[in-house]
Amino acid sequence: MAEDPGVSEVVKQIDKACRESGFFYMKGHGIPDSLVKSVANNFFDLPNEEKVRIKISPAAGYKGYQRIRENVTKGIPDMHEAIDYYREVKEGMYGDLGKTLEGTNQWPSNPQNFKEPMDEFIRLCTGLLTLINQDDDITALQIYANGLYESTLHRVINNSPRFRVCTAYFYETNFDTTVEPLETCIQRTGFARNSERAVYEEHLVKKVLNNFIPELLI
């Protein structure tokens, strides 16, 4: 595959996009738009009292539905609503630090067919692309790339009279992984270590604990 000129060109384009823009669009990936769009639209069309049945909370391991202005980015409440799912963390799986995310994902009973297409979407994404999550202090991809790659703050402006649905998938490292610069990236940056190593569980728990307005989670 590495000798395929087409593949090499795509790799160069992705590398350039990650260095200069921090994101890129991919098309022709084989995941149909219709896979999750219908059930996602049906859920967010529901009245608020129906959606909050799976409301996000510390007791639920910060999994579930978040209302508008409940999530915070750089200290500013976000004008979006969402459902957060994580790889489920069993009790005691990662010690005291892991307790923050212990619990099972909350799936809505309405629409009834919500879970199946979401599971299929996750399965397809896992084999397609790796996306690394970010927050204000640490970006795993930046550390792996030793500063070669920059992350772009994700903001969306919707000028349409209709709501916009985005199904985002973050394929993250194992909870207890130590993230540190890759040797090839160290070489590309003149053999200087521009990023410190970090433990992913510490990053993720910090992000979750600072990502929501506390009084709204009660």
From TrEMBL:
The keyword Metal-binding applies. Residues 5-110 form the Non-haem dioxygenase N-terminal domain. It comes from the Eukaryota. InterPro entries: DIOX_N (IPR026992), IPNS-like_sf (IPR027443), Iron_ascorbate_oxido_reductase (IPR050231). Pfam families: DIOX_N. GO terms for molecular function: metal ion binding. Keywords: Iron, Metal-binding. Gene3D superfamilies: B-lactam Antibiotic, Isopenicillin N Synthase, Chain (2.60.120.330). The keyword Amino-acid biosynthesis does not apply. PANTHER family: 2-OXOGLUTARATE (2OG) AND FE(II)-DEPENDENT OXYGENASE SUPERFAMILY PROTEIN-RELATED. This is Non-haem dioxygenase N-terminal domain-containing protein. It comes from Lithocarpus litseifolius.
